[in-house]
Write a structure and sequence with these properties.
Blueprint lengths: L2 H12 L24 H15 L16 H12 L3
Helix pairs in contact: 1-2, 1-3
Length: 84
């Protein structure tokens, strides 16, 4: 499974999207688009990503732009993993 698909799967679990996670693509909007994606969800998602990918995010390296789309979130994770 590639990183983007892993992130989509994690989004589905964290946001409790059920079958709707299968509809997400790299271009899918997140923050301000998905009603389930609020500030508390961002915190839960970051924790899930940190656990799954064994990475750690610092507050100063995060901005709302990282949560605009699945692709921008994937880019953030790839950079933390050293793949981008």
């Amino acid at each position: 499974m590639d990183i983007e698909n892993e992130i989509i799967s994690i989004l589905g679990v964290v946001l409790q999207l059920d079958g709707r996670a299968a509809e997400l693509t790299g271009e899918s909007g997140l923050l301000g688009v998905l009603p389930e994606f609020d500030s508390m969800s961002v915190i839960a998602l970051l924790g899930a990503l940190e656990n799954h990918f064994e990475i750690a995010f610092q507050d100063d390296e995060l901005s709302s732009s990282h949560f605009e789309t699945v692709a921008t979130l994937t880019d953030l994770v790839r950079k933390k993993l050293g793949h981008g």
